[in-house]
């Protein structure tokens, strides 16, 4: 005590703490190391309470003491243990009770915040929906008002000076746009709209879905000058109006083209989000008579129309979408009383699908193949087919039943047993033998039927013939009710037999009067449904094996400006020719030298202007990956070396449609000739020459050239066979 007199008080404090620890834990004997206590007392002097570890470090028999202290419940064995146990129990209970209450409160608070946020979101969304509904109603009212005004003034608008704002937008549903590759390229198939300049009263504003460089701009300026040269060659009156054609068009590129790379938006939506482009268009049309010509209608067309304060040459987007679906077009065809394939539409459940198909098979046993088409299908991508008759086990028995009943087979009671048998076998047949055209999206029947039943669809008979020709008629229904046939053509196929890759113009498969009659009936039904603008009607024709007569079926209706109209505009622009919708013929005026007649002073031969028929084959879907390595100037030099070009004197040859300035993989081509066979042969020759020039053994690339050439060769074989049959019949008679 005398030696540690300066820290004795702290030593006593440590001993009391140790004494209390031993009492609390009922430790019988503990031997303390005095030197370690003095070391620990120095920390107590600094007002730091010693820890249990530090206290145990002063105990000599630490192992025995520590074992007792760490024994569960030992601290309640010492003096006051019962009181400490009661305090511990109470504190544990209060902790459990309060924590449970806190968790319950926290859950309620979280639930309240979720409910509040959900309600606020609902209220805000409801306000936004109401605002959007009001805006949409206002836009529709504005659209209808402008349409009525355009309808009243159409005669003066269509004959006076005007500006046409071309927006080649593909306003397809979001589901389809997500699956389409190169949507801007598909929209730019319609760049031939620039050739509406053949009317001297028209100025064009073309909204481009792709950037346009000087090379493409220079090409289309030269195309306008080609029109001038052609007109002057035949002393055409349009030569005077063609002099300033290159000054009467303007190409506007929306600044939002690259702002939404992952959304695959249509051009109308991108233009909506391009305020500078809209403002520029508004300034260009200020104080001038104008209207918009869209592609496939989209609700954002209404916004653009309202912003620019000009009407749309077309119908309301909702009506356009409704009657462009497969089921919607069937309603129009049914009301028009035009011939249609056997089938059923508005199918939305599996039971309806199986029952309808079974009934159709029973009623039309001669149909070998049945088609399934999704309602909002585009370009044949939503088609599947099944040769049901080939794979149906009970088909032979059904034929025997039909032969046994004879004329009574048309009665339902006669078909009942066969219908039940077919219905039971159909699911398995469709599951195993249905072929989807778009195999990248639909790998099997399960994947296809899921989308088919969700979106709705139709069942349609495939023509029961080995030779089927598809025809497209492009119509224009003007706001005042008049309609015109713009062009018509037979389909060329490359990637798929259900997709139109190109046209041979004009169509030569069906009598013009018959198709015109069907088109008039369809137009009347369209006008009753307020459908105006550009409309494409698709037909198929074949020889019926039963009657040995030609049959025509109306199969599809597309509302909107198509690539075929665009390509026809280019052909008409460079040839200065005219299409006769009554006879489905295209004529041009060419100079022809008079035989043995020369000018009395100069001795030069004298010419007379005569009308001659012209045919064309066109496609905007030429694709070859090796084209990307060529500049357009090199490409045109290569074409000239092979004699691929346009003769302004005879108004026949080849004209190209340039689509893109970056990759150059896609291009359009129009070949014009004096006969259909020569035109088809020249088109195939052009494709083959280009393919040989840009294809090597080490760099073949991806291309659809050879598929198109194969289809053209088949058509040429059929035409030659038909010509031989006609000549043989003539000789016999």
From TrEMBL:
It comes from the Eukaryota. InterPro entries: ATP-grasp_IQCH, IQ_motif_EF-hand-BS, IQCH. Residues 317-580 form the IQCH-like ATP-grasp domain. SMART domains: IQ. PANTHER family: IQ DOMAIN-CONTAINING PROTEIN H. This is IQCH-like ATP-grasp domain-containing protein. The lineage of its organism: Eukaryota, Metazoa, Spiralia, Gnathifera, Rotifera.
